[in-house]
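Hi U.,

Before I forget, here's the chain from the pilot set. I'm dumping it here mostly so it's searchable later in email.
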Amino acid sequence: MRNESEETSREERGLGSVANALRLLETMARVPQAGVSELARALNLSKASVDRLLSTFTRAGFAEQDPATRKYRLTVKIVALAESVRSRIGLVEIARPHLTGLAEQVHEAVNLGVYLDGGMVYLDSIPSRHTFQIEARPGVMLPAYCTGAGKAILAFSRPEVVESYLAGVAPVAHTRFTLTSVSLIREELESIRRAGFAEDKGELLEEACCAAAPVPGPDGYAVAAVSITAPRSRYSVRRAELISAVTAAAERVTAGIAAAGITAPGRTNPAPPLS
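Structure:
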């Protein structure tokens, strides 16, 4: 019982520290700079606690101390995080009407995905109205090498991004169609680059197929991809139609983000300029 109580107490202290760190972050965001004493008064915390939190912020690069005033201020790292979030939100808002239009046109599941830290993450998804449907959940990270959107983005990424990805990837056979060697993935990406679109031919889920097209940012490198996912039975008979539709939708999203001046969300996902 004592061990459980001690564990609970440690967890509660940990949660309290996180809450105080967030409160400190919010307080510092409202002023150009502040000292330990004034921050402690504003938060009703001890100076020792605030000092520890500021030391953590400083080591992580989120805060810095002004040598002249000895006061603390937030760094541009916070701005970079905020810009990353803003870009993603802006991308979803701009893409949503085009995704909705695409879903109404093809009556299949439509997705918007980005490449992040070696994986593919869906930012938005519109499910199919069919009884038998394949649905992707926004926020879930999937392997980039066996998803249409992941391959579409990688194929149009800067060479150093592709090489870094291929050097670190360890392909796993999810189905009999999954590409399980780096050389085959490299060949696939080259083929996608020539074609201008990507396909998942049942590589992650055997009965789920996908057509995807890249969305280049202002610098010509892919910041996202639009994809259509359908059961193999429907995809096989509509393949050309779905590829054409997703490519056109990706072009409309590209035009939308260009008009809004949105930059790459996170810029961990690039691509060779689209020709």
